[in-house]
Design brief:
There is one protein chain. The protein is an alpha/beta fold and 198 residues long. It has two domains: 49 residues, Helicase, Ruva Protein, domain 3, CATH 1.10.8.420; 137 residues, Dna Topoisomerase Vi A Subunit, Chain: A, domain 2 (3-Layer(aba) Sandwich). The chain is elongated and about 60 Å long. The chain has a five-stranded mixed sheet. Strands 1-2 form a two-stranded antiparallel sheet. It has eight helices and seven strands. Bound molecules: zinc ion.
């Protein structure tokens, strides 16, 4: 016997498929949502579909943006010869929040993980290599200090070394397995300043 209506069950199932949402949270959210006025739900649904429709990858750094080129890449005052490689847009935001980094970024959208079946072709690596055709002085790798992040850093450095572009890695002041976005600005900046050449 089903405990809830089929529609509720479907909603719970959908919600619990989201990252970080367990079954209990999904149930709580589902009941919250069905108790909202209809127009609120319609607005919510529209925000979702609008975001999906309009958000795209920046054609240069691959961060998520509403425009062809994101505001950072479009900014002529930024140092376009310095590229910071991050795992995702949230990591980029973490560095942007410090307001102290003047270069540009490259968003990989993941990290190499043989265990999860994520290979070099599954992240925006080819795209990074393409950007090195332009004048680039330094590539700063800030992937997480998890196994996947370290694997990715090694892989990228091996790939870039032959091109003669300087490759650096942020200092290991960033806690192991720590997601960049949870780290405070001071630690982020210290890690950036203490970066070492690979
Ligand atoms: Zn961009």
């Amino acid at each position: 016997m089903e405990l809830y209506s089929g529609y509720i069950n479907k909603l719970i199932e959908e919600l619990s498929s989201l990252p970080g949402i367990g079954n209990k949270s999904a149930q709580r959210l589902a009941f919250y949502l069905v108790n909202q006025p209809k127009d609120r739900i319609e607005r919510f649904a529209k925000v979702l579909t609008d975001a999906k429709e309009h958000v795209r990858y920046c054609s240069s750094c691959y961060t998520l943006t509403d425009q062809e080129i994101c505001p950072v890449c479009a900014n002529a005052k930024r140092d376009h010869r310095m590229i910071m490689v991050v795992e995702n847009t949230r990591d980029m935001t973490a560095y942007e929040k410090t307001g102290k980094y003047e270069g540009v970024y490259h968003v990989l959208h993941g990290a190499i993980s043989p265990m999860l079946g994520v290979g070099p072709n599954d992240i925006k690596l080819k795209e990074l290599m393409q950007r090195l055709q332009d004048e680039v002085d330094e590539v700063i790798i800030t992937t997480n200090s998890s196994l996947e992040g370290e694997t990715t850093a090694m892989y990228i450095s091996k790939l870039i070394k032959p091109t003669g572009v300087k490759v650096t890695r942020i200092a290991s002041g960033v806690p192991v397995g720590g997601d960049l976005e949870y780290i405070d600005e001071v630690t982020l900046l210290r890690a950036l300043e203490g970066r070492v050449e690979l």
